[in-house]
Amino acid sequence: MKDEVQSPEERSAGLKGMGCSRKRVEDVRFTQGKGNYVDDIKLDGMLTGDFVRSPYAHARIKSIDTEAALAVPGVLAVLTAKDLEPLGLHWMPTLAGDKQMVLADGKVLFQGQEVAYVVATDRYAAADGVAAVEVDYEDLPVVTDPFKAMDPDAPVLREDLAGQTEGAHGPRRHHNHIFTWEQGDRAATEAVLAEADVVAEEMVYYHRTHPMPLETCGCVASMDKVTGKLTLWGTFQAPHAVRTVASLISGIAEHNIRVISPDIGGGFGNKVGVYPGYVCSIVASIVTGKPVKWVESRMDNLMSTAFARDYWMQGKIAATKEGKITGLWCHTTADHGGFDACADPTKFPAGFMNICTGSYDIPVAYLAVDGVYTNKAPGGVAYRCSFRVTEAAYFIERMIEVLAIKLNMDAAELRRINFIRKDQFPYQSALGWEYDSGDYHTAWEKALNAVGYDALRREQAARLEAFKRGETRKLIGIGLTHFTEIVGAGPVKNCDILGLGMFDSCEIRIHPTGSAIARLGTISQGQGHATTFAQIIASEIGIPADDITLEEGDTDTAPYGLGTYGSRSTPVAGAATAMAARKIRAKAQMIAAYLLEVHDDDVEFDVDRFVVKGAPERFKTMKEIAFASYNQAIPGVEPGLEAVSYYDPPNMTYPFGAYICVMEIDVDTGEHEVRSFYALDDCGTRINPMIIEGQVHGGATEGYAIAMGQEIAYDDMGNHKTATLMDFFVPTAWETPHYTTDFTVTPSPHHPIGAKGVGESPNVGSVPCFSNAVHDAFRPFGLVQSHMPHDHWRIWKIAEDLGLHG
Ligand code: PCD
Questions:
Q1: Aldehyde oxidase/xanthine dehydrogenase a/b hammerhead domain location, by residue (predicted)?
Q2: With a cut of 0.90, is the ipTM above it?
């Protein structure tokens, strides 16, 4: 057989296992238009639901008249809070311990809020019905500024919370206050600040933005009145959690609910939460006895489902004259909109914002976060970052630059002086995390060398001189960032969502002929899980990745898992995959030993087979072993070859990266050109280098959008100003910079294959990098801090304010 003459290296290459840039198996269907998204689902007699949304940001609802709407041909029902109230479904719990109106109950708190749900035979009839619903509003004073929201006489937004001084995360100080979250040692940090040689202080704002997946959120609910079973297809990043929550709030037994996430066109955190559209569609299906589809429009999506960021971070950073950081202080005001619907693990009301000491060895630190209600959409989702890590990274990477200015130091050098050293890992941070592994100095030197840092600084200085001489109107900015992520939630002991511990799972079944199916508790939204997780199994048990089907997202078949967000799939479900595969390998070893008539310990694994130690010509391939497990009675061994693993990670993983951006800025027009962008990522063991590169390109492009133009903006009346793609900047291929990717490999010591997550890293790292480049260009003229997004106008305004327009 050909097989037997192949070298182990050849056999190994044939598996397309870990480390192989295997082509994405998903793309065969995606590139041919054969994906199956929620809106592709068409069921017999299926109805459509659509929302009447509030034009006001804050108003009392005096009446809702549905009569004209019900007369529209094709309209079957119009649901309002009054209809949901007897079912106890007019409000629903949020993931953050708050509650949220499903349909406006007496008042509205943000523009675009769901007021009534129209059910009709098709989308057009539903739209006509929506237009015919008459709502009588009485407008109320609006608060869009989180600081003004805390004024003593600010309007009361959440009347339902009147008199409640205790919130889900401790005492509330004011009627628009949600929580205060404190971490670290305040007294020690303040003492350090008081005595420090140098203290740099700045307000760093990370503006409100939106994940904006290409596919908006949606679902199809189908209640089968005969069997009593509810099937819910939807764009869910956590299908099992949706099933449990749906059961708890609807009272339908969990085994009678089947949740299916079909193909998803990007999630980015937007599809983690539970939205009114899901609840209303389920109710409508129960009421009408027909399947009901609800799919958001682009405006619906940008106006009402999960925004991201909106953190005002006041920082103080202390250092010695030589630049050694001695302490960090941060007070954050978090604008949560009308309801606290953040998607964070329960015990972390500000997510993992306490990773804000970043890549630096900072002995003492203090963080306080105040969550505040305003008349904006709810959400606060971890848009391509593990629960506020991107805010934390932006904060510290700006504070480092601000400190470098104060110290009159090179910011690359300042970072170098303060990095956590390789020998300090596992590293205990001042704000409570244990970083698993890292080698920041090596990554940093590699990055600086790769871009030719010293030469770049010389070029920048020469350009500055030319600018001053009037020979050019373009400045050069060099943006530096070294970020540390925290991904893979993650230890069940401190991470849960609505009480569900954040483990994850994988089940593997080997078929008699040696091919396999694996099912996971996670769900790909474009990341390529079907490609990469099969690669882990291929390397672990020696079955070619091409012979492994990978399935996710159907709660009737997949093992329970907490889903995909927070770059947790590789750290948690990826670990479960390796562990389940190892169970299979252990059983295969027993079978092989039996077949080869030797003791279990006398065979060893070799790529795709077990060989007798010292007698390499005597072996059984995994294919043979698989068949034997189904066709032979093996004493003491159960038939079949299957395993499942539920994995509770002992710690999170801490990927990191060194990013450098070179930008040209036109002082007169405010236009910029990204001349180069270098991204070095360390995500431990790399499963699929090509997919990693794709992740970095995608995440960095989202980061580019956020830093350079994208925002969710409101006017003083709470009108949403950026609810279409005319106003909300999404880069096309035209604007997207060119990226150079690179890597180092520092495995995670506690992960079975040493892998860390990577999907979020490029968003976390690139935003401060782009922003620092803009700031750096104007540093010689005294710019210290200017808020994102750095669109052309805002950059022009920096130059104007600095007097550079003459
Ligand atoms: N990897 C490899 N290696 C390593 C790592 C990793 O290979 N070392 C790969 C894996 O396997 C996959 C990816 O890569 O495939 C990713 O991974 P991760 O990091 O683990 O992650 P995941 O979990 O899977 O995912 C998640 C993420 C997130 S979070 C986000 S936002 C985003 C990212 O992912 N999203 C998305 N990316 C992406 N892509 C796409 N395409 N789409 C989408 O949607 Mo959140 O929290 O949700 O916000």
A1: 32-141
A2: yes
